[in-house]
Amino acid sequence: MGAHQTLSFAVDGMHCGSCGMLIDDTLADLLGVHTSTTTYRTRTSVVELDPGRVAAAQVIAAIGEAGYTARLESR
User: Contact 19/68 with Cβ under 8 angstroms?
Assistant: First the structure.
C-alpha cells in the first residue's frame, strides 16, 4: 500500500485526558489513519496515516466534528 506519513496537529479545546481518548477514537474510524496519539498535557495529536487515502484537512475536520479545533503543526 501507500507510504505512511506522521503528522502532528495542535489541538485546542481539550479539558482532560478523556478528551484525547475521544479524539483518538474518532480518528480510528477515519479510513487511512493507522494510529493516533492525542495528549491533553501537550495539546497535540500525532497521527500516522496513509496520505493516499486521507488528507490532513480530513483529520482536522474529524477533530472538529468531535468538538475541538486543530491545525497542522510545522515540522
Answer: yes
pTM: 0.93
> Which of helix, strand or coil describes residue 72?
strand
Distances in Å between the alpha carbon of 54 and those of 6, 33, 39? 12, 7, 21
Cα distance between the two ends of the chain: 25
Rounded to whole angstroms, how far apart are CA atoms 52 and 75?
Answer: 20
Residues 66 and 23 sit within 8 Å (Cβ to Cβ): yes
What are 45's three cell numbers? Answer: 495529536
Each residue's pLDDT tens digit, 6-31: 999 999 999 999 999 999 999 999 99
Say if strands 33-39 and 69-72 run parallel, antiparallel, or are unpaired: unpaired
Sequence length of the chain is: 75
